[in-house]
Amino acid sequence: MTQTQAVAGPQGELLLRTMPLPADTSFNGDIFGGWIMAQMDLAGSMMAKEVTRTRTATVAVESMQFIKPVRVGDVVCCYGRVQRIGTTSVTIMLEVWVRPILHADKNQFTNFKVTEAAITYVALGEDGRKQPIRKSKADT
């Protein structure tokens, strides 16, 4: 059993909840993977800003594997947790889960995992250059 199959539910804090629209579909009728990645980056950047308390920029995305397609009308939920805080960067582990309200059996909703990735953000100063992450007293 893979790590993805072993997890019973989302790991981390719910950061973003949205619904894709018909304009977000590929020629196959499924939601573009790039749209999913953009939602993950938005969700992760919000958490990164909370951690760094400054501007951030995305600098790396670890490998992603799309497990199941997402359809118009599905509720897309991005969950995240801090994986690592470095001197100038923070890595957020993100998962995308879907609740297929329109396409589910009417007697039960079955949430499923779509993808996961670790995204690294760097803290930026006013000049746009990387800067050390300020630690609060609660962090020490």
UniProtKB/TrEMBL annotation:
GO CC terms in record: cytosol
InterPro entries linked: Cytosol_ACT, HOTDOG_ACOT, HotDog_dom_sf, Thioestr_dom
Annotated GO MF terms: long-chain fatty acyl-CoA hydrolase activity
The HotDog ACOT-type domain, residue ranges: 10-127
Record key words, sorted: Hydrolase
Entry keyword Hydrolase: yes
Record-level GO BP terms: acyl-CoA metabolic process; fatty acid catabolic process
Protein family (similarity comment): Belongs to the acyl coenzyme A hydrolase family.
Official protein name in the record: Acyl-CoA thioesterase
Source organism per UniProt: Desulfobulbus oligotrophicus
